[in-house]
Amino acid sequence: MVYSIMEINNSSDLLPNVTMGFQLYDSCYNEVRSLMGTSWIISGKEQFVPNFECHQHIMPSAIVGDMPSKASMPIARILGLYRYPQVSYASAHPLLSDKTQFPSFLRTISNDNYEVFAIARLIQYFNWTWVGIITSDNDLGRSGTQLLTKEIESNGGCIAFQEILPLYTSMESVYRIVDVLKKTKATAIIVYSTMENLIPLMEVASFNNITDKVWVGSGSWSITSDFPRRETLTTLNGSLGLAPLSGKIPGFKEFLYNIHPSKYPDDIYIKTFWELAFGCVWPANQTTALKEGSVWCTGKERLDSIDTSVYDVYNFRYTYKIHNAVFAIANALHQMNTCVPGHGPFKNGSCADIYNHQPWQLLHYIKHVKFNNPAGETIFFDENGDVPIYVDILNWQLFPNGSNQYVHIGSFDAGSKKGHELKIEQQNILWNQGQTQVPISVCSDTCPRGHRRATRQGQQICCFDCVPCSEGEILNPFDDSECIKCPGDKWPNTRKEICLPKVIQFLSYEEMLGTSLACISVLLCLLTFSVFCLFIAKRKTPIVKANNRELSYLLLISLMLCFLCSLVFIGQPNMITCMIRQVVFGIIFSVCLSVILAKTMTVILVFSATNPHSKLRRLVGLRIPIYIVPFCTMVQIALCIAWLASAAPFTEFNMEAEIGTIVIECNEGSNAFFTCVLGYMGLLASISLLVAFLARKLPDTFNEAKFITFSMLVFASVWVTFIPAYLSTKGKHMVAVEIFAIISSSAGLLVCIFFPKCYIILIHPEMNSRQFITGKNNRKL
User: Fold this and answer.
1) Within 13 Å, how many C-alpha atoms sit on residue 577's CB side?
2) CA distance 726 to 663
3) Which of 28, 365, 390, 428 lies in disulfide reach of 332, CB 3.0 to 4.6 Å?
């Protein structure tokens, strides 16, 4: 204040030819002392007489102060009655913005409500969801805590505990709070209290070695070093605190370094300060004896040699706010002094006399003042008497030599765009016990990926268990307390964070299984074609002519087509392949089985013709085997046409067959027709097996009925085992099972019926004669 008034008095632009002065009153952090000082200022007498003004000289124009809100509020209530201007530099209680109760109160510090918003955003920034609150037992503490709790909970956090510090120290309450601090899982502790209430708690906390907490302080105590014990500073090391904006006051550092008792002989504080700063003693008189271990103050000591932790000439916070308060009053007086009659703000354009004005007139000018202070910052008051909101965020760092420092690590600007109010320089933070990582303050650890939060019954939402998301679900990116199901064509990734497109699956030629089956089919088809060529080449030999060689040719051609039809089942299914593959398979196999039945009937009829007593002799001339093949085939063709006409197979994307996979498969359309097609083939196979079995003992050197019996046994065994295997598999393996059944049953027919004949043709051509076939040769097969 002294420096600010000196600047104003030395200025040629601000209040020229007008000298400002001041009076100092110490309220001692006490409401009663504040009221006493106020009464002296208003009345001019130590014995206050209400509504009487007894000043011997001019009455002070305005009051700058007080620092604590509890002292400013009773002052403001009295001064408001007289509309006497009061500008505080540190009282941040939100209630002081109420102009109905405090019409003449203004301040150069921000409203405490914005400090609450800053603390809540700070807690959210570090992801501290489980925090404790310690507050003073007064209006500021209760209202601030209520608002702070609301803000923290709206940001997703929870309050682990809320303890109240009594206004008058109660060690029982202090020990109870310390016991809570020991037991709580919360690491971040918000202290919304005044300095004098906090000291006993911090001393007991230091005795109990509570150093694993992060204390988050309000501006009312976080930038003070008035704690009497070093252990307390150790406990608070690494704390975060809010502080008024640190401003620059040009020339103030030099002014502070030039202070000397000789320059201010009437200052009652300067000698005491000098003794404390330099550890010396001023002699009361020349005969005073110096105590052992002490030194005399010489006056030659240099203030610039003192450590800044003791005599800080760089960080001006409340000092800067006082500077602004004094300049606000001076600028208001300047506007009053330069008012032009007829253009003034009062009735009929009148002006006020700077030397003889009413308090409400100066209050009008202060409310509407707007100026740039010497540091270049624009100062003005809003309709509530508050200044623009901006606070610094500090980190309390203690060094091994015992000194401490407040390091600027960020700021909160309420005027910034929403979501960008808070700025933090995390690399500058030093946490307690030398930690470099941000301490964790949560009730329950973060759930692993793919797990949702399940709130514990009867507890706050921040205390939860982790439950894995069900199969096919991912964690909701907007709400980690629930899982959401992926769409049908998608599947969760391994971390269950996002839904990825399912893998498309079908039996393709590119994979080993599809390639192997395709190669086997082609090789067996070529083998069958080789047998066919051999039979064409040896068509005139008895063994080829036996049992109707035309039926043998037709059977070989059908077997070749059977092997090739399995290729239709490989590759990505489409509308055409789905419609024809079962139909082609059914018709071709019906042809094969019809030919086998016809060959068996031929054997029976031939040998029946040689028996004069057989009733079947008269059927030989009817050539029944020739009609068996087209008749039996036409029945299957009719079934297939009906199938395609009523409920044709179609392509289907099966998302349920395999986890995380979309199986492209053919839906058979009508299971009834599919069963009929397979059932008809089973009927033909059963009849062929029965007829061949009955004819197995017919006399002949080369009885083909025996081989047909064996082939049908193989065929029946394959398709009987196919049914349970087909029904128990899914996806592409179901197709592979059907292909395997087609190949193996066709191969069984080829081997059992034609390989014995090929053996004779190639290895024992001498047996390929009419005499051997009719049994007139002694050699046996």
Assistant:
1) 16
2) 16
3) 365
Task: State whether 121 and 91 are in the same domain.
Answer: no
409: closest CA among 438, 389, 440? Answer: 438
Considering the domain architecture, whether residues 562 and 630 belong to the same structural domain is answered as yes
* Gap between the Cα atoms of 466 and 443, Å rounded: 13
The pTM for the full model equals 0.61
Whether residue 311 is contained in a domain is answered as: no
Q: Which of 24, 138, 135 is nearest to 70 (CA)?
A: 138
Q: Could you tell me if 130 and 160 lie in one domain? A: yes
User: How many angstroms separate the CA atoms of 150 and 618, rounded?
Assistant: 107
What value does the mean pLDDT of the chain take?
85
State the residue for tokens 């008024």.
Answer: 244
The answer on pLDDT for 232 being more than 80 is: no
* Amino acid (one-letter) located at 34: S
Residue range 370-395, pLDDT digits in tens: 999 888 888 999 999 998 888 889 99
- Say whether pLDDT at 322 is over 80: yes
Of these ranges, 354-368, 418-432, 450-464, 669-683, the one predicted with the greatest mean pLDDT is 354-368
- For the cut 60, the answer to whether the pLDDT of residue 620 exceeds it is no
- Exposure b/e, 601-612, CB count within 10 A at least 16 = b: bbbbbbbbeeee
- Average pLDDT (283-307) is 78
Rounded-to-integer distance, Cα 99 and Cα 351, Å: 24
**Domain around 471:** 451-501
- Scored b (16 or more CB within 10 A) or e, 552-575 reads bbbbbbbbbbbbbbbbbbbeebee
Structure tokens at 714: 């193989």
Please report the pLDDT score of residue 757 as a whole number: 85
| DSSP string computed for 629-663 | HHHHHHHHHHHHHHHHHHH--EEEEEEEEETTEEE
**Best CA proximity match to 61, nearest among 7, 115, 20, 108:** 20
The pLDDT of 143-171, averaged and rounded, is 89
In the predicted model, what is the mean pLDDT of residues 676-692?
85
Nearest to 708 by CA among 747, 674, 754: 754
Q: At 490, list the tokens.
A: 């998608």
Which tokens belong to 623? Answer: 């050539």
Residue 303: HSE in the Cβ half-sphere, 13 Å Cα cutoff = 15
H/E segment holding residue 736: helix 732-762
Last residue of a domain, one of 331, 346, 376: 376
271-293 tens-digit pLDDT: 888 988 888 888 875 556 677 77
Please give the Cα distance from 164 to 292 (Å, whole number): 46
The answer to whether position 181 is within a domain reads yes
Distance CA 510, CA 517 (A): 12
Q: Answer with the one of 347, 376, 405 that is the final residue of a domain.
A: 376
Q: Which residues lie across from 731 on neighbouring strands?
A: none
* Structural tokens at position 690: 């029965």
**Can you give the pLDDT at residue 87?**
96
Pair (39, 71) in one structural domain:
yes
Residues 339 and 322 in one domain: yes
Q: Give the total number of structural domains in the chain.
A: 4
Kindly give, in sequence order, each residue whose CB lies less than 8 Å from that of residue 163, ignoring residues fewer than 6 positions away: 132, 133, 134, 135, 176, 177, 180
Same domain as 124, residue 101:
no
Q: Of the spans 91-95, 99-103, 387-391, 590-594, which averages the highest pLDDT?
A: 99-103
